[in-house]
């Protein structure tokens, strides 16, 4: 029987290109031999064979002299073979059938199984194949694509579960500190994973799906609110101060929702809450249902989600990283305080998660043992500097940032844990710090402070102000603000806080300005009033006075003039609150012993 040779070829991307048949003696080989002689050629094998052209070919294609088997001829002789054109080689015209047969014999004696190409086909010489025409190339490309699709279907991995892909900045070695949490989901409903308590749905007694549902609800409400604001854009800021119908309806709705809330918890609810607290302790948030109205609870949930989203943005920006540079709590005196924001403490302290501080000298330490040893040796019982105010157990100390640099730096680092917009940490020399304390038999405990520039070109009387969390909502914030304006009165200047104000700072200042204006209007007996006169008597900036009058709807524009309305209802409400509150938390100007410092 005549010898048969296998030639292989493929496209450049490794897919099967075409099948070819070759015979040694076309006239003598039977039709069954043609069926067995159909093989495949790979172009990748051609490149491999270029490096071994000096060696004897393992296999060669032998053609009849200068003869090409066309598609019609191959179909006549081989019905089962694929009908691909066989391309004539460049050297086939000079090769004879005898030479081809000799090459075949040598290849067969050398190795019956020639080496395989990466596609599994035997290599062949590049000179064995020639591109016959552009039409053949197009057809070969089309067939190559079909075969590549078949191979892709054979290696299809769609039946395997796809691996979930998270944000590239997530650290998969981190885990949520809440016991039993798998770190999936986020309180905001916008992230796949979380690594802190602030974003843990389980800690807030929610599921990941519930958080996503609440997020979609908040988005819808935000869209409706934006649409309603666009409708109200035509209202003038001073001419139309009356609330719109939409605002009135919303106010009535909120009032009705707050009336519906239960006055107290029944016995079953109390037992449920106690059981939840006993089983989870501080690892879960207390149950908040029925404690307040549904409207206020929803507002609280929105604030939680917004705070968690802000922390997530800080984490993605690299300012906060989970578990390494975020101080969770500080031990300050007899209090353990949860922090609100990131503060740039040294890394060796920040990565601990909990700091121990001396409440008198503000030195920070790593452990309770170090704090106990420090407290046994610390001789400080009050802030450094001069005591310029004392009434009862309340004192205020003036601390120069240049003279007591370390104390002021520690004070700024402590304040940054509870302030969002603070940027002053180490450059404290151009500032004066006024520290308010509350005294008992153990010493003067830090209540709050404010700082001001020694030489302010814009007459800012406050650069930064803070009330410690354990003293908030007790009137100390307004005392600090009132004290700052008292210093401005002594200096005979008009003061204003430095912008931007934090959220809590803006609320405190608005409340203080409101009380100052209502007190002034209550004592004013004339018919004409001047904003400049109010500013000179109260030391409040005229811009702040105008903004407060507008917020109280007491400033009207009529016949080309601005009129100040004396709203007796607001004055009566203020007098009732003032009587109920008493004068325990107020600044007495006579207790101030201070002379304005000269420029330094």
Automatic annotation (TrEMBL):
<feature type="region of interest" description="Disordered">
    <location>
        <begin position="1"/>
        <end position="140"/>
    </location>
</feature>
<keyword id="KW-0235">DNA replication</keyword>
<feature type="region of interest" description="Disordered">
    <location>
        <begin position="579"/>
        <end position="600"/>
    </location>
</feature>
<keyword id="KW-0963">Cytoplasm</keyword>
<feature type="compositionally biased region" description="Basic and acidic residues">
    <location>
        <begin position="246"/>
        <end position="257"/>
    </location>
</feature>
<keyword id="KW-0805">Transcription regulation</keyword>
<keyword id="KW-0832">Ubl conjugation</keyword>
<keyword id="KW-0808">Transferase</keyword>
<comment type="similarity">
    <text>Belongs to the MYST (SAS/MOZ) family.</text>
</comment>
<dbReference type="GO" id="GO:0006260">
    <property type="term" value="P:DNA replication"/>
</dbReference>
<dbReference type="GO" id="GO:0006357">
    <property type="term" value="P:regulation of transcription by RNA polymerase II"/>
</dbReference>
<keyword id="KW-0539">Nucleus</keyword>
<feature type="region of interest" description="Disordered">
    <location>
        <begin position="211"/>
        <end position="283"/>
    </location>
</feature>
<feature type="compositionally biased region" description="Basic and acidic residues">
    <location>
        <begin position="211"/>
        <end position="236"/>
    </location>
</feature>
<dbReference type="Pfam" id="PF17772">
    <property type="entry name" value="zf-MYST"/>
</dbReference>
<dbReference type="GO" id="GO:0008270">
    <property type="term" value="F:zinc ion binding"/>
</dbReference>
<dbReference type="InterPro" id="IPR050603">
    <property type="entry name" value="MYST_HAT"/>
</dbReference>
<keyword id="KW-0156">Chromatin regulator</keyword>
<protein>
    <recommendedName>
        <fullName>Histone acetyltransferase</fullName>
        <ecNumber>2.3.1.48</ecNumber>
    </recommendedName>
</protein>
<feature type="compositionally biased region" description="Basic and acidic residues">
    <location>
        <begin position="102"/>
        <end position="114"/>
    </location>
</feature>
<dbReference type="InterPro" id="IPR016181">
    <property type="entry name" value="Acyl_CoA_acyltransferase"/>
</dbReference>
<feature type="compositionally biased region" description="Basic and acidic residues">
    <location>
        <begin position="23"/>
        <end position="34"/>
    </location>
</feature>
<dbReference type="GO" id="GO:0036408">
    <property type="term" value="F:histone H3K14 acetyltransferase activity"/>
</dbReference>
<dbReference type="InterPro" id="IPR036060">
    <property type="entry name" value="Znf_C2H2C_sf"/>
</dbReference>
<keyword id="KW-0862">Zinc</keyword>
<feature type="compositionally biased region" description="Basic and acidic residues">
    <location>
        <begin position="267"/>
        <end position="283"/>
    </location>
</feature>
<dbReference type="InterPro" id="IPR002717">
    <property type="entry name" value="HAT_MYST-type"/>
</dbReference>
<dbReference type="InterPro" id="IPR002515">
    <property type="entry name" value="Znf_C2H2C"/>
</dbReference>
<dbReference type="GO" id="GO:0005829">
    <property type="term" value="C:cytosol"/>
</dbReference>
<dbReference type="GO" id="GO:0036409">
    <property type="term" value="C:histone H3-K14 acetyltransferase complex"/>
</dbReference>
<feature type="compositionally biased region" description="Polar residues">
    <location>
        <begin position="88"/>
        <end position="99"/>
    </location>
</feature>
<dbReference type="InterPro" id="IPR036388">
    <property type="entry name" value="WH-like_DNA-bd_sf"/>
</dbReference>
<keyword id="KW-0804">Transcription</keyword>
<keyword id="KW-0012">Acyltransferase</keyword>
<dbReference type="GO" id="GO:0045935">
    <property type="term" value="P:positive regulation of nucleobase-containing compound metabolic process"/>
</dbReference>
<dbReference type="Pfam" id="PF01530">
    <property type="entry name" value="zf-C2HC"/>
</dbReference>
<dbReference type="Pfam" id="PF01853">
    <property type="entry name" value="MOZ_SAS"/>
</dbReference>
<keyword id="KW-1017">Isopeptide bond</keyword>
<dbReference type="GO" id="GO:0003712">
    <property type="term" value="F:transcription coregulator activity"/>
</dbReference>
<dbReference type="GO" id="GO:0000775">
    <property type="term" value="C:chromosome, centromeric region"/>
</dbReference>
<feature type="domain" description="MYST-type HAT">
    <location>
        <begin position="322"/>
        <end position="596"/>
    </location>
</feature>
<keyword id="KW-0227">DNA damage</keyword>
